[in-house]
Inverse folding.
């Protein structure tokens, strides 16, 4: 597998007096959060976290309020200084970067889209979008041309001359997104960008992110406390609790094989048929079944397969590149919906 874009190893962020001593002292690291606070006055917002963000994936950091999501993602570009551990972007040590290199990292390589847009109120939409390019010293004509292109990409055509105050929340968020995209960063970091939006606009923005990702394949790190958003957007999800990653996996892994009771409780109400794929419901095909008949792809959801089985009135093949991997029938599909153990994977 290719080198991760971001590699994080043994990362700690401790707030408070003499924070450095906490990660280095096994007695302190073993303390629960409340006791650590009483004993040392310190909060360990991120505790010994390791992961890699793969090129082209949407990596979601999810957890309840206070679990450490924002601190973790801010540490990636040292908007917050880590206390211990290593962070690399494309193999380059982020903690060793000087000020100029860091500025370049934040402006060009890993741009952040914030919840509160951070738009300049007296500037037009176009100038707000061009702002990042302006700081980079790109000439006026070139930055206006690039800004116009990105404005169109996020669906704001016709609103170029408005000021932020004349836009809806969703439109303002699109401007924030366009501004981050204009500098063409290798990675886009999203800090709960949609949590202030009403549900319909929020869904629209989520679809926008999915579309942008599909069209461009840009690497994205997305913070959210909303499980449905995480499941919808994430190729992989890091689920955080008290500063630690309690499980890192695909939506299907997290919903289908929760790592512990906390995760199990977290995903309890998820409609499994919309997340689990037919691989978990499959059984081996008999020679007769394997030969012909309607088929679904291995990435099809259980929900899609239920439709196919209902239409066919019997088992449906799971076919990948012309090869029959197995079949799904109503019994197997119902087992997944009911949450009984998935069948052992075949092939
Ligand atoms: N500057 C700070 N000083 C002291 N403690 C802090 C500071 N910033 C964050 N914390 C603490 O670190 C922990 C993690 O906070 P963080 O903001 O990263 O969580 P979060 O998961 O992003 O929460 P939310 O979803 O509410 O934004 C919390 O206990 C918080 O109180």
């Amino acid at each position: 597998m290719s080198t991760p874009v971001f590699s994080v190893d043994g990362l700690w962020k401790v707030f408070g007096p003499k924070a450095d001593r906490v990660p280095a002292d096994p007695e302190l690291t073993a303390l629960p959060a409340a006791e650590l606070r009483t004993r040392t006055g310190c909060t360990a917002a991120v505790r010994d976290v390791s992961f890699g963000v793969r090129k082209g994936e949407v990596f979601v950091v999810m957890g309840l309020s206070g679990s450490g999501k924002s601190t973790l993602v801010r540490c990636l570009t040292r908007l917050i200084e880590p206390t211990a551990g290593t962070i690399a972007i494309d193999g380059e040590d982020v903690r060793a970067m000087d000020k100029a290199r860091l500025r370049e990292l934040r402006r060009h390589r890993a741009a952040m889209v914030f919840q509160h847009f951070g738009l300049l109120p007296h500037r037009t939409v176009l100038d707000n979008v061009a702002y990042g390019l302006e700081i980079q010293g790109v000439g006026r004509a070139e930055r206006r041309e690039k800004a116009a292109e990105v404005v169109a990409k996020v669906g704001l055509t016709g609103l170029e001359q408005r000021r932020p105050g004349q836009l809806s929340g969703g439109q303002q968020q699109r401007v924030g997104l366009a501004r981050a995209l204009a500098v063409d960063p290798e990675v886009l970091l999203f800090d709960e960008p949609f949590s202030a939006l009403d549900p319909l606009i929020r869904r629209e923005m989520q679809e926008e992110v999915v579309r942008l990702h599909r069209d461009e394949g840009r690497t994205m790190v997305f913070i959210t406390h909303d499980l449905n958003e995480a499941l919808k957007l994430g190729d992989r999800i890091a689920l955080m609790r008290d500063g630690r990653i309690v499980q890192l996996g695909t939506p299907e892994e997290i919903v289908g094989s929760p790592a512990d009771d906390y995760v199990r409780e977290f995903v309890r109400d998820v409609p499994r048929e919309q997340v689990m794929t037919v691989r978990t419901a499959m059984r081996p095909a008999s020679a007769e079944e394997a030969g012909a008949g309607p088929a679904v792809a291995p990435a099809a959801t259980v929900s899609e397969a239920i439709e196919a089985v209902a239409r066919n009135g019997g088992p449906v093949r799971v076919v990948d590149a012309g090869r029959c991997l197995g079949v799904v029938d109503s019994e197997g599909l119902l087992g997944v919906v009911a949450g009984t153990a998935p069948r052992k994977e075949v092939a």
